[in-house]
Amino acid sequence: MSGEFKRAGLLLRAIAKTLDFIIIAAVGEVIPKAGFFAGLAYLLIGDGLFDGRSLGKKLIGLRVVSADTNEPCSFRDSILRNSIFGIGYLLYLIPWLGWIFILIVIVFEFIVLLGSKDGMRLGDEIAKTKVVAVTTDTETLTGRLNAS
């Protein structure tokens, strides 16, 4: 794993998560019956892919690492840190109840993230992970743009 780590900013994290949600929605539309479950699987294990990166984080240049060892996020860690979103995703199918639940989860996670001195949301606290920006990795979107 190459690169030097610094704490990821809130805007970059929000953009990466939004990209992941767009991917999940697209899979659900392209493959209607199996897409829901594929989207749920991606939501839960996505941060364990690509050396601690979901597709959204890979595009933006972020990585999820263990808070203790700085090792890339494992599938287990990814499931733990995204389980709250997974529950919201499952409940989202229930009109009003699911929608209100996911809205509450997003607001609560945002408040916890803002109040954390280490930049950790509730899912990060549960899984003992943190999101970092990879500053010297040419795989990132920023690195590719700067290289050209």
Overview of the molecule:
This protein is mostly helical and 148 residues long. The protein has one domain. The chain is 61% helix and 9% strand. It is built from seven helices and three strands, in the order βαααβαααβα. The chain has helices spanning 10-30, 32-45, 55-60, 75-91, 97-115, 122-127, 141-147, and strands at residues 5-7, 62-66, 129-134. The protein has a three-stranded antiparallel sheet with strand order 1-3-2. Helix 2 (32-45) packs across helix 4 (75-91). It starts with a strand and ends with a helix.
Mean pLDDT: 80
Strand order in the largest sheet: 1-3-2
Largest sheet geometry: 3 strands, antiparallel
Percent strand equals 5-15%
Shape: globular
Structurally, how many domains make up the residues? Answer: 1
Stretches where pLDDT is under 50 for at least 5 consecutive residues are: none
Distance between the termini: 23 Å
Helix proportion of residues, in percent? 55-70%
Q: Number of helix segments?
A: 7
- Order of helices and strands, N to C? EHHHEHHHEH
Total strands: 3
Classify the secondary structure makeup into a structural class.
mainly alpha
User: Nearest-angstrom radius of gyration?
Assistant: 15 Å
